[in-house]
């Protein structure tokens, strides 16, 4: 048994609290290095993620704002005694490929990875890997007799997928089927004006995708941590109402 699996198993034995498995499926393609704020053009260009980009100095990248948001999310959950015992998070990134960069574990032993932007947008591979990891963790809950809430998938992208089309179709079909069978809750989030909102809508038959206002990652992750806290204080299977008014402060409905 691998060391990580052993730790994950011990977590379930030592803490039988019902779990909320959450997978953050994050776009780390080259376009996530796009800059906002005060910057200067260098006059140079590069081709990345299917587009030509101006190279600049200064400013703030989308990815750095996302990294800051992740820190707020983790710190908020760690500070909540009930949520920190219930929430289990993994992070999948997708660029040229898809990788699990943080596997499920007790949140207090996890360290947020440093994200790097490069390559294309293999969204299909990313979502399929995320669903595989959620299914695997659910199986481990069942084997250890640990109850769990409906899994969450947070899908964030700033563009259109340009990876394998078959992988994308498979990911959309799997996601929709799980949602229709009440086995998954999805939060589809578009970043910036070029986010593929129509594609995100295909993943979400019951909920309109949300577009992040002005790179308000911190506000989004604060809202998400509050939603985790509210869920952790309910009973598995109980329907939880999202705070729609709060969503309007960071997202466009």
UniProtKB/TrEMBL annotation:
One Pfam short name: VWA
PROSITE patterns: VWFA
Top-level lineage group: Bacteria
SUPFAM superfamilies per the UniProt record, alphabetical: vWA-like (SSF53300)
Stored SMART domains: VWA
Domain VWFA: residue ranges: 21-231
Name of the protein: VWFA domain-containing protein
Source lineage: Bacteria, Thermotogati, Thermotogota, Thermotogae, Petrotogales
């Amino acid at each position: 048994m691998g060391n990580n699996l052993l730790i994950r198993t011990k977590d379930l034995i030592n803490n039988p609290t019902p779990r909320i498995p959450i997978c953050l499926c994050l776009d780390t393609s080259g376009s996530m290095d796009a800059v906002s704020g005060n910057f200067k053009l260098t006059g140079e260009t590069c081709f990345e993620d299917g587009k030509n980009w101006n190279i600049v100095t200064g400013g703030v990248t989308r990815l750095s704002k996302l990294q800051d948001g992740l820190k707020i999310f983790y710190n908020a959950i760690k500070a909540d005694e009930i949520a920190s015992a219930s929430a289990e998070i993994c992070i999948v990134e997708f660029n040229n490929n898809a990788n699990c960069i943080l596997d499920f574990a007790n949140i207090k032993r996890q360290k947020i990875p440093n994200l790097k932007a490069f390559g294309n947008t293999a969204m299909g591979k990313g979502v399929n890997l995320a669903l595989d990891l959620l299914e695997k963790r659910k199986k481990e809950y069942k084997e250890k007799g640990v109850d769990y809430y409906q899994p969450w998938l947070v899908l964030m992208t700033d563009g259109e997928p340009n990876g394998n089309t078959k992988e994308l179709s498979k990911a959309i079909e799997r996601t929709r089927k799980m949602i229709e069978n009440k086995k998954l809750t999805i939060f589809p989030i578009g970043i910036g004006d070029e986010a593929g909102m129509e594609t995100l809508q295909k993943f979400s038959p019951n909920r309109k995708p949300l577009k992040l206002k002005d790179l308000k990652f911190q506000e989004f992750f604060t809202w998400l941590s509050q939603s985790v806290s509210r869920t952790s204080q309910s009973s598995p299977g109980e329907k939880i109402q999202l705070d729609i008014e709060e969503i309007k402060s960071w997202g466009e409905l």
